[in-house]
Amino acid sequence: MSAGWNTIESDAGVFTYLLENLGVKDVQFVELFSLDAESLHQRGPVYGVIFLFKYPVGEKARETPIDGAFDYDAAESRFFAAQTIQNACGTQALLSVLLNKDDLIDIGPKLREFKDFTGAFPADLRGEALSNSELIRDVHNSFARASPFADEAQRLATEEDDVYHFVAYTEMGGKLYELDGLQPAPISHGSCSFEEFPKKVIPVLQRRIERYPAQEIRFNLVAMVQDLRIRAREIGDQDWLYQEEQKRNAWQWENALRRHNFVGFIGETLKGVVRSKLAGGEAKYAEWVDEATKTTSTRRTERRRAKGGVSEEEADEERVPEQ
Fold first, then answer.
1. Catalytic site residue 165?
2. How far apart are CA 116 and CA 98, in angstroms?
3. How many whole angstroms separate alpha carbon 323 and alpha carbon 318?
4. What is the model's pLDDT at position 158?
5. Where are the alpha helices (DSSP H) in the chain?
6. Residue 98: exposed, middle, or buried by beta-carbon count in 10 A (0-12, 13-18, 19+)?
7. Separation between Cα atoms, residue 136 and residue 141, nearest integer Å
């Protein structure tokens, strides 16, 4: 891992335990697979949603947003932080919802202290304070995938790069807001009560998705809701409670796997395979290598043909001949 901020996945289990490790109580995330207001409402209470999308790198800054209107007063009166560092937008989106719902959510002493400390700051200084918080950065990085071959050199993205960005949507003070640290202020999408949020956020998300070509499907949406185990206990639904507990166990297992570096394990496995082949003698080993070479060549040719990059004649020429 680097000493900066590492990339984390848009995953309900990652986000749930990230907030739990920051001291937040009785909150979880659920993945949404359709833009359906009733389905979202049934997950309630819904504190906000986190939307991941492909960021248009070449897009120029605008004085007014494409949808909605900047609310500069909300940038001062609510928790809104400018994004000042790469790879922090996921955690920043979570905190954008969380720190504006501290009247409904127990955010814990550490985040309460952070919010109180940054309360009088402008958005850019809030962003700097967030980026320099060792607590938040360390918890964020603990959920990044182990990547011993990662290039830690920083460079600016180009239009050819696939760059993804997180934004948050939540209700604040009777309005529906889009909170994006790359924008100068929160974007208001009109009046909205806490109870109306599931219904009113769906059309906003639909309009956002419609800006992209019809074939673009690389989006992800998760909702921040009350811990579903609380509702299961309240209504006495033991089957639902069991399912939620099993889900938590699976999330913990997946998060543990994310932290693990499997390079050593893979290396030892390959050594064991080679030793077993060599035990059959040099001729058997050479036969194994030859079969693997032909299989790899065939697969490469088939992939190219599927993409229209090779003709049948070229495919026949590229195949490794039988010995």
1. yes
2. 14
3. 15
4. 47
5. 12-21, 37-42, 72-77, 89-98, 108-118, 123-131, 134-141, 197-209, 228-235, 238-259, 263-278, 282-306, 312-318
6. buried
7. 9
Integer Cα distance of 319 and 312 in angstroms = 11
* Whole-prediction pTM: 0.77
Among candidate residues 89, 140, 189, 192, the one labeled active-site is 89
Strand partners, 224: 29, 48
| Residue 192 annotated among the catalytic residues of the structure | no
The whole-angstrom separation of Cα 198 and Cα 176 is 10
Whether the ω angle into residue 198 lies within 30 degrees of 0, i.e. cis, is no
- Least Cα distance to 98 among 90, 87, 106 occurs for 106
- CA-to-CA distance for 268 and 211, rounded, in angstroms? 48
Q: Output the CA angle 152-19-23, nearest 5 degrees.
A: 120
Cβ contact 174:193 at 8 Å: yes
Among residues 41, 140, 165, 192, the one annotated as catalytic is 165
Residue burial 183-202, b: 16+ Cβ < 10 Å; e: rest: bbbbbbbeebebeebbebbb
> Quick one: how many helices (H) and strands (E) in the chain?
13, 7
pLDDT in tens, 80-130: 999 988 888 889 999 999 999 999 999 999 999 999 999 999 999 999 999
Q: How is the beta sheet containing 27-31 ordered, strand by strand? A: 27-31, 220-226, 46-54, 164-172, 175-179, 187-191, 69-70
Closest residue by Cα to residue 142 from 18, 13, 261: 18
Q: What are phi and psi of 38, to 5 degrees?
A: -65, -40
